[in-house]
């Protein structure tokens, strides 16, 4: 587990992406621990720790930010993804939107990072959490991902249950990414 920005990435069963360094990072770590308990090799990447600048055409003209290549390698090496993201103003947090935007201008086919890849989505949100998951589901479907039908919504009054996390990991295990 843990965030890794090293050189080439070995094939990975599950990459868990945290789009905040608070409760959603803790939720991501719970997903990684559950995956390990089910015999899957997993890693957590904290998008906040990558400190990518906001994607804009001016930022793009200034060059590729450090950390982006490592993120791209980790996504490419992972058979499956879990994305844990808080709800920001009823939608996807800027750190996640910006990371996807940066990835979209890299290489010839950035959709290959998502296309046919099984993905589970989860949130720990101060708000309802359902609109971030709807927005995320829509974006991931546009990128060609196979988003698991079940999703996880948690908050301070309704914390994530281990049974729900384990069920999402089991569902992901049964889905195979499309061959590249």
Descriptive overview:
The protein is an alpha/beta fold. The protein has 7 helices and 6 strands; from the N terminus they run βαβαααβαβαββα. Strands 1, 2, 3, 4, 5 and 6 form a 6-stranded parallel beta sheet that branches. Helix 1 crosses helix 7.
How is this structure best summarized?
The chain is α/β, with parallel strands linked by helices and 180 residues long. The chain has seven helices and six strands. 39% of the residues lie in helices and 17% in strands.
How would the blueprint of this fold be written?
Blueprint: E1 12-18, H1 23-37, E2 42-46, H2 47-50, H3 57-61, H4 68-77, E3 78-84, H5 94-104, E4 118-124, H6 130-142, E5 146-147, E6 152-154, H7 162-173
Parallel strand pairs: 1-2, 1-3, 3-4, 4-5, 4-6
Helix pairs in contact: 1-7
Number of strands: 6
Q: What radius of gyration results from the CA coordinates?
A: 15 Å
State mean pLDDT (0 to 100 scale): 92
Strand content: 15-25%
The major beta sheet can be summarized as:
6 strands, parallel
* Tally of contiguous helical segments: 7
Question: What are the low-pLDDT stretches, counting only 5+ consecutive residues below 50?
Answer: 1-7
Portion of residues within helices: 25-40%
């Amino acid at each position: 587990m843990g965030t890794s920005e090293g050189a080439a990435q070995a094939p990975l069963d599950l990459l868990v992406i945290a789009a905040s360094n608070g409760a959603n990072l803790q939720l991501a770590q719970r997903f990684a621990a559950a995956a390990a308990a089910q015999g899957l090799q997993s890693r957590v990447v904290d998008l906040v720790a990558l400190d990518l600048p906001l994607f804009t055409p001016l930022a793009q003209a200034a060059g590729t930010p450090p950390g982006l290549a490592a993120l791209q390698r980790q996504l490419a090496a992972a058979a499956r993804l879990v994305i844990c993201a808080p709800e920001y103003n009823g939608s996807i947090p800027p750190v996640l939107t910006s990371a996807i935007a940066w990835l979209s201008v890299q290489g010839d086919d950035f959709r290959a990072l998502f296309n046919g890849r099984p993905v589970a989505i989860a949130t720990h949100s101060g708000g309802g959490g359902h609109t971030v998951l709807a927005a995320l589901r829509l974006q991931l479907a546009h990128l060609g991902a196979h988003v698991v039908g079940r999703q996880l919504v948690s908050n301070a009054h309704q914390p994530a249950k281990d049974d729900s996390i384990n069920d999402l990991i089991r569902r992901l295990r049964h889905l195979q990414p499309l061959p590249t």
